[in-house]
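Support reply, case 0932

Customer input (verbatim):
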Amino acid sequence: MQSTAALWDVAVPSLPGPLRGVSMAGFSDHATSPVDLDVVPYPAVTMALDFGDGILAVEDSTGGRQHGTAVVGLGASGVRTHNQGIECLQIRLSPLVAHAVLGSPAELVSLDDLWGREATRIREQLRATASWDDRFALAATALARRYEAGRPVDPELRFAWGKLVRTTGAVRIEDLAAETGWSRKRLWSRFRTQLGLTPKRAAQLIRFDHAAHRLAAGQRPSQVAAESGYADQSHLNRDTATFAGTTPTAVAEAAWLTIDEIAWARPAYLQPGKL
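Our regenerated output:
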């Protein structure tokens, strides 16, 4: 049986873009029938722009559904894609970048609703551009322009997010607040407003992502739980059910993480110099 990952040709940029905390990949779908795919949550805001003649639909657990373009916020859950014959640019944004570029959407929304006519114009430009490197450059320019015009996150949140990433979520929120000089209530409020979720949820998501990639790499759930900051395997099971709606064993075999490994060989937020 042909693997789901084999249904796509994947392109990645040959050079880094001007913005740190941004990763891109291009997907050309040559499936002969519609493909449904469960999306494993990731600690980044994800943009998808289809500029081909196929069908791209993204939906979440609330029943929300977007066609052609989609922005998946950090708070979205139960996300699935339905596609056939797509030519799609996918972009992952650190929430620190997403706040300025997109306004920190928490759930699933359309890029058209956030960017208006500019979203349509960019899709038309992507369609008219022949090479993936030129498409990546076009998108990077648009993101950089939006970032410069947008409102940056508070320095305290930049520090807090960086600390959560460096510790893989293993930091007490009270200690994190104390290090920023804010109260726990203020940190909680600013996190929700500017990054789209609470600091506790962010810590859990970062830890789960770390565990999911280790599961996909073939490590045993008990080992992953012990080495990823979980109290025990039952704790890992609960987080996996919360974020992915399934079991660690199923996550280890998730087609989405196979694609993830092809398009983003190492999570962008863990790379040196990334936000």
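We compared this against your earlier run and they match. Two observations from our side: The CA atoms of residues 100 and 151 lie 5 Å apart. Residues 267-275 have pLDDT under 50 and may be disordered. Please reopen the case if you see a mismatch on your end.
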